[in-house]
């Protein structure tokens, strides 16, 4: 148990450092947002580029991994829609946001730092890049398109899809993915000074991202949202990992590191911009509360999952 806590505790201590810095007014909301911008626009894209260029492309692009993780995420997404629309009779925009919260992990800000400690930075970065493809090209666009369609009462779906895809095309993570793929496909080596800059930025991604999460959580509160928040958290921290595990078991045998990484990323809480995405559809409060409670609860669930993986031989440590 102490070995497991030695893995998860530093992650949440860094989150706590960000929370404390906000609490004692060492930093303010705008400064936290500045660090978040650095992570999103510089550190994470550099991390993706390094992952794609420092490893052979055939080792990075894992079709069975993409299929298993993608199907598991889509299964949770679809079940969340079924639950919210057919059984709970919620509006489509609200159902889409519930589905997004349950099926898209905080891969960059929590999943990668955790996986790097458990598996090593190189495999964690490769798995993060694969997950970014699924989240940014499949799950997030599907949720935003459906939410916008619901907001417009079904009108202008084509326009909503076009606007969503145009916004995603400017996503710095996707830009990093495209740059990394082009460099890998053309076997282009970066000049040494530029490669060193990429390496320095990539190394800063994990700690800075965790600090941002802590600062973001400060001041968030739960007010009369227990049912919705609980539903999203159960779907994300339990349903998503189980669905991903089930899909991996249906696939041909893969490197155990890939399965372990998939489970660690799937066990991470929802994406950090979840409240911001939900704000347009009246879900800002629920999104913020789910992010706060989900991140805190993940300390327990991730520790349990790491222990189970060690017990069953999925992790060697």
Largest sheet: none
Compute the number of helices: 14
Cα distance, first to last residue?
A: 12 Å
Range of helix content: over 70%
Overall tally of structural domains = 1
Explain this structure to me?
By secondary structure, this protein is an all-alpha fold. The protein has one domain: Na+/H+ antiporter like fold (Up-down Bundle), CATH 1.20.1530. Helices cover 80% and strands 0% of the residues. It has helices spanning 2-23, 29-53, 57-60, 63-87, 92-103, 107-119, 121-151, 157-169, 172-185, 192-217, 226-250, 256-266, 274-279, 284-311. The longest helix has 31 residues, at 121-151. The two termini are 12 Å apart. 49% of the residues are buried. The mean pLDDT is 87.
Task: Compose a concise summary of this entry.
The protein is mostly helical.
Question: Which helices and strands appear, and what pairs or packs with what?
Answer:
Elements: H1 2-23, H2 29-53, H3 57-60, H4 63-87, H5 92-103, H6 107-119, H7 121-151, H8 157-169, H9 172-185, H10 192-217, H11 226-250, H12 256-266, H13 274-279, H14 284-311
Helix pairs in contact: 1-10, 1-14, 2-7, 2-9, 2-10, 4-5, 4-7, 4-11, 5-7, 5-11, 6-7, 6-10, 6-12, 7-8, 7-12, 11-12, 11-14
